[in-house]
Design goal:
There is one protein chain. By secondary structure, the chain is α/β, with parallel strands linked by helices. It has two domains: about 120 residues, Rossmann fold, CATH 3.40.50; about 160 residues, Rossmann fold, CATH 3.40.50. The chain is built from ten helices and eight strands. The chain has a four-stranded parallel beta sheet with strand order 2-1-3-4, sandwiched between helices. Strands 6-5-7-8 form a four-stranded parallel beta sheet, sandwiched between helices. Helix 3 links the parallel strand 3 and strand 4. The longest helix has 18 residues. The chain starts with 9 loop residues before the first strand and ends in a 7-residue tail after the last helix. About 25% of the residues are buried. The model has no long low-confidence stretch (mean pLDDT about 90).
Amino acid sequence: MVPLNEFPPIFILSGGSGASAEQVVHTVLAQFPDARLPVITISNIRREDQIDAAITDVISQGGFIVHTMVNRRMNRYLVKQSKLHGIHEIDLMLPLIEKIILVSGHQPAGHPGLYRKLRKAYFERVSAIEYTMAHDDSKDPEGWDQAEIVLIGVSRVGKTPLSLYLSVLGWRVANAALIPEIEPPSELLRLDLRRVIGLTMHAGQLLIHRQQRQKRLGSPMHSKYSDPQSIYEEVANFEQFMRQKGITVIDVTDKPIESSADEIMDIISRRLGEGSRRD
């Protein structure tokens, strides 16, 4: 049995992004929880010299290769070089491609990354969801400049569920809470404020949301957080700050998430144009 700190790396070689091979490799590795094999992905391989360079890395680290080279010429070259240097290689694509050719009589397109291109919208949506979850509740402000929409508001105004709903529709969303007596994050005011939307809510409904949260968490019910007068002042101060900075505010009181999301998407699309979403 190989010691835990001496496992050879798995090199993933792909003519595309390598995402398909990564998923297969990590699915298999999950069956070996004690075998922490390093995984190194080398993507967008289009030339033989790129394969040569990868082979050199594999040799130097004593690893082996898993590949998804759908281009026949590049596939043959990789297999040949692997055999020449005594490197173990596992082809995840060609055996299945050849079986489909045999059964169907059709020839493959042989274009790397074709699956990802055909499912571009799906992968963009997954990326948006991952981004939004990583930037929920004031997390990673350094990454806010990559957001298409930034939602800000006081605590319990509904930023997280609205952010996640928008992300499922394909928007990269960050959200942050403005907390009384704490300076807003400096990163916020460095953003393109056309992408920033403030969320407000009637103090009475906000009080109910906060009381429900305190009850759920078992927190003391008598605090500034759920004091009606404090909440009224907090909302008023938030709206005043938004006006001072020229940031659009929408009222989400008694609105379903879908309605608030439609309003936000309409505002952002009109300001920046659909083609400018990711500029």
